[in-house]
């Protein structure tokens, strides 16, 4: 230990003397600069790099021994061990390097196993397990129903890719059409868009054709649940041809095949749709336009025709069905407005009773919300100054119709509060007790 300490001190002294001689030499050159060119010895600075988040290491003091240090002594580097700690005497490599080496078994090893996996005589191949058709249909139904809510085809495609295999992809197209047959035309339009977007990603034209062949075979059973299934299936086939998802020769080949009566009807109608003038353009709108994007004037016209048809037929169930097919829940206040206006203009107790029953059924089935109902009545009250110019008895008719409606269902407090109370004084005397009003009603009836 004493010998090592003396050697270390001698090294430190030698280093100090070298530094001092360099400093003296520099001073002497500066003093004699008039005789020749100045010679300066540039000082070297160690460069440090902190890209990997390593903080530069401060230099060691001179009194510390460099005997066992693995750091570079040329002033360069970041002060890290050479070769990542893998160099030096008695070192076998970097930590963890034994895990990266490929071990080859020796056949002469007593522990050699001829049936081991690592021998090299076993070949691995990817095996895709095909799911059962019932399982694919069961998993596809919630994805399709969820798509009908959000309308995002990319999200639906990602969900299908999790469990659909190429050999079972036709089941997805078949399930989409079957579920859409039980829904509205707007959902059928969404189903056609989904098939078009999944084409080339989930299934091919061959898969779509095979799915429609299976649907045509099952059409007699589908008609039991959906009477117009043949018409709807023909629309789907024609729309897929228009969207270039199905070749036109599919319809021609199926027309020559031996099919059941319902399937022949569907194929014949699909041929008719495709042979129409500008048929491919018209097929883009084969399912109609959604209620939210229809023109307001068109909707008002449809509501007026709906009410006239209901008054002529008296079929309440058909009227409810027509209201649902409009698919405009945000525009139901216009339906209430037109109904009340028609009751005021009719001046007929039978028409009033029929229209009052219509509104009561809409309220009972929750087709028209209470907010939309009150909004329709309030719109009539706001326009009474203009309505009374065309219908002089408008205030009387409105008062009587509101009383009828109040007996069958409850109106909002805002409607009852804003009901006019002075309008009927123009036509009825205050002291007759309503006899003149009743006499006029009897004459009108």
TrEMBL record:
It is found in: Cytoplasm. It comes from the Eukaryota. SMART domains: MA3. Pfam families: MA3 (PF02847). Residues 36-46, 64-81 have a biased composition (Basic residues). GO terms for biological process: negative regulation of DNA-templated transcription. Its main location: cytoplasm. InterPro entries: ARM-type_fold, Initiation_fac_eIF4g_MI, PDCD4. Keywords: Cytoplasm, Nucleus, Repeat. PROSITE patterns: MI (PS51366). Residues 82-91 have a biased composition (Gly residues). Gene3D superfamilies: 1.25.40.180. One of its GO terms (cellular component) is cytosol. Residues 135-256, 298-421 form the MI domain. Belongs to the PDCD4 family. This is Programmed cell death protein 4. It comes from Parnassius mnemosyne.
